[in-house]
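Moderator note: this is an archived Q&A kept for reference. The question asked for a predicted structure of one protein chain; the sequence and the answer are reproduced below.
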Amino acid sequence: MSKVVLAYSGGLDTSIIIPWLKENYGYEVIAMAADVGQGEELDLLNEKAIKTGASKIYIEDLKKEFAEDYIFPTLKAGALYEGKYLLGTSMARPLIAKRMVEIAKKEGAKAVAHGATGKGNDQVRFELAIKALAPELKIIAPWREWDIRSREDAIDYANARGIQVPVSKERPYSMDRNLWHLSHEGVDLEDPWNEPKLDILLLITPPEKAPDRPTHVEIEFERGIPVKLDGATLDPVALIEKLNSIAGENGVGIADMVENRLVGMKSRGVYETPAGTVLFNAHRELELLTLDRATLHFKDVVASRYAELVYDGVWFAPIREALDAFVDSTQKVVTGTVKMKLYKGSCTPAGTKSPYSLYNQELSTFSRDEIYNQRDAEGFINLFGLPLKVRALMERNFNSGR
């Protein structure tokens, strides 16, 4: 019997895919669950997968690799998709696909399968990674093949086979959780006019219910990577988890957006990214202090392109590796400490320091100084403004000749 490795979460879609693969392909199904920080969602997953029809299940702890090799490179790049999305799901998919390929090779599997729909971005992210790492593997995407057309249909399919699923027809939100974020899509959120219900938030306290006093946190970076939180050295996973708790309690990290999917449609989602929001803003503040103007501005261009690559699933590609080389070069001086103030959903800088600071108080002061000669500005302005002056003279001569 041929084998197929399924990216398994225990959610609605992947729960019904196991019997569907057996019924329609006759494959032996090996489930692979990636622990990227979804917490209690992994409880009883082994029992559930076997009971649903899988021959075995791998539960892989990938949190450390996720933080070090996916989250931190994207953070250093300053990647933010369409000004709001911190790419939590986008970063995790190539890692999950990479491990799925490794298990497929170990098991001698002929195919791999995933539960992404034909309308979403995840199908692209999974499959581009698989094509880059193991082009010989057959890829099965049930949502592009079966007759199930809605989550309600999927629930009916599960119920008919006695499969318990963690959603109901009353509140069938599509959620994706990992170390970096928690996303919510579907149901009432599909109408952009609807304000999100407060009870959908699981990581973050609604800002209006957050503490009435601000909380200050200090984050120390080395070469663009966060290494300390409030003076304590923490490993990447522990640092993100602790900051998730602190920022979440203060209502920080909610992003409600209508985004442009790669497949051509717009979708609306609500993202909870507490630690990510604080780290992104703190990292930016440190770059403002340590990077020169030309490097900083060009890095903004790179950040936008990097965000698109990650969002589109183009992780295992030469261009991403090349951009990483540029980013790593810029991060040589992004070392220092940033103090952030968290208050009822806001996240604002409260102080920044670095041994590589380019800020010179003697130059910038409004008080008397002995370094900067203000008369020098006249010649600079004359040269900088020369093209404007030449054009204005041309237009005057042209108009006077009419």
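Archived answer notes: The longest strand covers residues 28-35.
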